[in-house]
Amino acid sequence: MERASPWNLGLSLGSRIMFLSVLTSGEAGDEPFGEHDETATLLGMFAGMQVEYRLGPGALFLEVVVGTSFQDLHTTGDLTVAELGILAGYRFSFAL
């Protein structure tokens, strides 16, 4: 947006690392197969959008971020991890 506008819009796109722990247990045909704990470090990506409105010495803002990762793990098989982050607040601007 132009500098004189009170509104500002921002877009983001990048990589993300997710840490995952999956605990599985159960039985098949009345025979327990025990517990298995699998941990993984997943590489993923995110995309986000931020809108802000200048107000006083800072700006009110709202940010929405969507992240995802697609993996093939040993215990769970094909796995999709997704996240939705919503952040709202007030940001102060300082000039040094």
Keywords:
96 residues, two-stranded antiparallel ribbon, mainly beta
Order of helices and strands: EEEEEE
Kindly report how far apart the N and C termini lie: 24 Å
Q: Please state how the strands of the largest beta sheet are arranged side by side.
A: 1-4-5-6
Q: What's the overall average pLDDT, rounded?
A: 86
- Please tell me what the overall shape is: elongated
Low-confidence stretches: none
Main sheet summary: 4 strands, antiparallel
TL;DR?
The protein is mainly beta.
Structure description:
With 96 residues, the chain is mostly beta strands. It has one domain. It is built from no helices and six strands. It has strands spanning 7-24, 27-28, 31-32, 36-55, 58-73, 77-92. The strands form two sheets. Strands 1-4-5-6 form a four-stranded antiparallel beta sheet, with no helix packed on it. The chain has a two-stranded antiparallel sheet with strand order 2-3. It is elongated, with a radius of gyration of 21 Å. The two termini are 24 Å apart.
